[in-house]
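Exam review. A common question shows you a sequence with its structure tokens and asks you to describe the fold in words. Practice with the pair below. Do the first one on your own.
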Amino acid sequence: MAITHNSEVIFHIHLDENKIPENISWTAKDGGIENEPSKAVMISVWDHKQKDTLRMDLWTKDMPVDEMKQFFHQTLVSMADTYERATNDLKMSETMRDFCEYFAEKLELKK
């Protein structure tokens, strides 16, 4: 019998009276992360029964817009990389990266 291991990633979201995130922190002990602060989190979960993606996108009220733009850009780039590893579809992953370049150019993220 194979040895199994369980791992956890825990998010703590501190909300104000209107349920708007004020603070976000996360822990992933297997990755050496313990109660690290963050300004934003995007989580996607695949529901294989419904064939649909469930999402949770949260950001704190003090997340600067310029950092949000950079966060989106970096997320899109990492999605292109993940798509390539998962599907081996080089043509579409390059198309995604082309869009990421366009996105960065339009938002003036590259100086």
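Now try the second one, then compare your answer with the model answer below.
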Amino acid sequence: MALRDFRSTHADVVLLQETHFEADKATQMRDRKFPVGFFSNSTAGKVCGTAVLLSRDFPVTVTGTKLDQDGRYTFVKGSLGGQSYTFASIYLPNRKQHKVLCSMLRTLADFQEGIVLIGGDINLPLDARLDTSWGTTSVPHSVLRQTHSALDSHRLIDCWRATHPTTRDYTFYSPPHQSYSRLDCMFLPFGHLHLLESVDIGLMTWSDHHPVLLTLNSPLVSPKDRNWRLNETVLNDPMIRQGTLQTLQQYFTENTTPTPHLKSYGKRIRR
């Protein structure tokens, strides 16, 4: 179900959290569309778990990976057409999120190359007023403050909030608390924010979380010049056909005599 959903979104890279695979068993979450996957599975059992899946339509050459033995992060880096990319799938605990995030970001800073994209379940709302249906959160203020400080120190921008500064939307519903929260985020360094084309919260399907769908513009691709072409359907209009015919007839009537420049040029050619 998950792979079918990924195919329907035409995703090139998928960042997964809470995979709950056992560390000592081979993971079978691959198919023809996503033949390559990297998984961090916890040695403590079927808890946590993160993954990065790469589509066959995204022929990146993987140059390095870093997998967490606790299943909290999966880092993958590679190159495509001379441009380096680093993808990070992260899953924070529901307590002391800031400490785990700081440790992850330090590890990522030593590993990363090129354009960096971080996505995952951070298990807290970055702005309780906008990112929760109740407008409040039980997460201590000190944890929120230090989480923001960690993101700021690495110049990481919450992509969805950057493009939806006042919108209220959520990625998770908690039945016990009867509340909605935006816990799933995608981050880009400030210096790469100009590559962001769009970011949206998708519909809930196979998971209990809504997916976050992000599109980046590749710095390697330059837009092609568009060639103008006549919309031939307009010629089906009798008035347009008649007007075009009259214009052509008038043009050839008024341009029967060559200009002196063209006559002179023609004589030189004949000699």
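Model answer, second protein: The longest strand covers residues 83-91. The helical segments are 2-8, 97-111, 128-131, 141-153, 159-163, 238-254, 260-270. Full marks require stating both points clearly.
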